[in-house]
Amino acid sequence: MSYNKNKSKTSTLKLPPKPKPPEPYECCERGCDPCVHDYYAKALDRWEKRVAEIEKNEQRKNARKALRK
Asked: Residue ranges per domain, the chain?
């Protein structure tokens, strides 16, 4: 994803905090459904989509600024 590749570009953006993976002790290894790892995967997916949306909006904003010049 671009948030890893273009650190200097996105460092000025206000991004939501990345979800933290569960600690090893948070999973009981009993095959729970849903597991804490399932919750983390969903949270990470939502976060990635939100970051992509923020970056897309920023690119549009910058494109509009460039057209005005």
From this structure: 24-69
Instruction: Give the pLDDT confidence score for residue 10 in this predicted structure.
Output: 46
Q: Is 61 helix (H, G, I), strand (E, B) or coil?
A: helix
Q: Give 43's contacts (C-beta < 8 A, 6+ positions apart).
A: 19
CA 42 – CA 49 distance, rounded (Å): 11
Scanning the structure block, which residue is given the tokens 């549009």?
Answer: 60
The token pair that represents 42 in the structure block? 């969903």
Answer yes or no: are the C-beta atoms of 27 and 36 closer than 8 Å: yes
Stretch 52-67: mean pLDDT: 92
